[in-house]
């Protein structure tokens, strides 16, 4: 068998390899594409460095600069139709000296989006951020891109809600414990007045993820106590018990603030009573004995159901939707005053 065809094939492969190598050595992407955003079939992707992407006119392209808390998640669940580029940056992952932020010159059309779900008390105030961003993505109702921890939606059908059976009166699940928290001081007084079953790392009573929902559903009341008190800072501590048929006893912003998110008869606010000692414990014991009064806290379930926001994919999708619909220029020059006051 002649070796000539074999040699011709090998020579062709060698020439092709040289051409490909030369292309990658000397090809320089257009500067207007640098610091551009990774594209997916739908909306967003994550990248730790600057990459290039073709600017498809039928696609909204969003760069998630850092995985929030290092947690990866699927991002092929968004929809988009128009071009509008943005960079989503999670506050808690920004270095104190801002050294891990994008270094390239920001294109004029590109919006930087400040993303944060911690309260001001638990958010470090970093220098150099006040005039850096174009948009805010936050739980607050006055943020540009509003993503609360949960929300109510209209139920598909109107029917009476029957809560699950209960074998616990009052429950509380806590991992982050500080004696300086308002909620800790309230609990220390409240626990002497009524039986409270506690769970979580703070009480050396760890529960597995699979046990969380069954335990929550088995409690008549749940202490939905926030770790700090700020405007609109109403977290999953409210929405999880609501979704599982448990009445939340809330400690956080004012009752009026809660009523911006859920009906007034869906929860009990500690401010409804002068003190734990005077009224709250007695009221919960009354509801425990009076089923009609207790079931009154579920009347809203005839018309609404609870949607607990899924971290973090829903947030980047919201950013994508916002950029798709609004492409006007916008700057945000008072982040410090707006968030920290």
TrEMBL record:
Membrane-topology annotation of the record: Single-pass type II membrane protein
The keyword Lipid metabolism is assigned to this record: yes
Catalyzed reactions: an alpha-L-Fuc-(1->2)-beta-D-Gal-(1->4)-beta-D-GlcNAc derivative + GDP-beta-L-fucose = an alpha-L-Fuc-(1->2)-beta-D-Gal-(1->4)-[alpha-L-Fuc-(1->3)]-beta-D-GlcNAc derivative + GDP + H(+); a neolactoside nLc4Cer + GDP-beta-L-fucose = a neolactoside III(3)-alpha-Fuc-nLc4Cer + GDP + H(+); beta-D-Gal-(1->4)-beta-D-GlcNAc-(1->3)-beta-D-Gal-(1->4)-D-Glc + GDP-beta-L-fucose = beta-D-Gal-(1->4)-[alpha-L-Fuc-(1->3)]-beta-D-GlcNAc-(1->3)-beta-D-Gal-(1->4)-D-Glc + GDP + H(+); an N-acetyl-alpha-neuraminyl-(2->3)-beta-D-galactosyl-(1->4)-N-acetyl-beta-D-glucosaminyl derivative + GDP-beta-L-fucose = an alpha-Neu5Ac-(2->3)-beta-D-Gal-(1->4)-[alpha-L-Fuc-(1->3)]-beta-D-GlcNAc derivative + GDP + H(+)
One Pfam family cited in the UniProt record for this chain: Glyco_transf_10
A single GO BP: lipid metabolic process
Protein name from the UniProt record: Fucosyltransferase
Subcellular location: Golgi apparatus, Golgi stack membrane; Golgi apparatus, trans-Golgi network membrane
Chain segments annotated as transmembrane: 6-27
Source species, domain of life: Eukaryota
GO molecular function term, any single one: 4-galactosyl-N-acetylglucosaminide 3-alpha-L-fucosyltransferase activity
Pathway where it operates: Protein modification; protein glycosylation; Glycolipid biosynthesis
Fucosyltransferase C-terminal domain segment(s): 164-338
Ranges where the Fucosyltransferase N-terminal domain occurs: 58-150
């Amino acid at each position: 068998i002649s070796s000539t065809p074999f040699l011709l094939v090998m020579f062709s492969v060698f020439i092709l390899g040289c051409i490909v190598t030369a292309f990658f050595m000397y090809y320089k992407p257009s500067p207007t594409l640098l610091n551009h955003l990774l594209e997916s079939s739908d909306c967003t992707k994550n990248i730790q460095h600057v990459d290039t992407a073709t600017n498809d006119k039928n696609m909204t392209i969003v760069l998630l600069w850092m995985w929030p808390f290092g947690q990866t998640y699927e991002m092929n669940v968004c929809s988009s139709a128009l071009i509008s580029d943005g960079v989503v940056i999670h506050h808690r992952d920004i270095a104190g000296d801002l050294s891990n932020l994008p270094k390239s010159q920001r294109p004029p059309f590109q919006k930087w989006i400040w993303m944060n779900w911690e309260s001001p008390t638990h958010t470090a105030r970093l220098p150099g951020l006040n005039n850096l961003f174009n948009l805010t993505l936050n739980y607050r109702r006055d943020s540009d891109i509003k993503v609360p921890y949960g929300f109510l939606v209209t139920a598909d059908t109107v029917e009476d809600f029957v809560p699950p059976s209960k074998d616990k009166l009052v429950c509380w699940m806590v991992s982050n414990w500080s004696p300086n928290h308002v909620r800790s001081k309230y609990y220390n007084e409240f626990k002497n007045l009524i039986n409270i079953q506690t769970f979580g790392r703070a009480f050396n009573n760890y529960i597995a993820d699979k046990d969380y929902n069954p335990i929550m559903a088995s409690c008549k009341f749940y202490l939905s106590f926030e770790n700090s008190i700020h405007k609109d800072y109403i977290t999953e501590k409210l929405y999880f018990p609501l979704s599982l048929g448990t009445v939340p006893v809330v400690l956080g912003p004012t009752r009026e603030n809660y009523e911006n998110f859920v009906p007034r008869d869906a929860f009990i606010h500690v401010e409804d009573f002068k003190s734990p000692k005077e009224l709250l414990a007695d009221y919960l014991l009354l509801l425990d004995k009076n089923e009609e009064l207790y079931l009154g806290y579920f009347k809203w379930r005839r018309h609404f159901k609870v949607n607990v926001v899924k971290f973090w994919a829903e947030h980047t999708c919201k950013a994508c939707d916002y950029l798709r619909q609004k492409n006007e220029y916008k700057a945000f020059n008072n982040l410090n005053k707006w968030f920290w006051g």
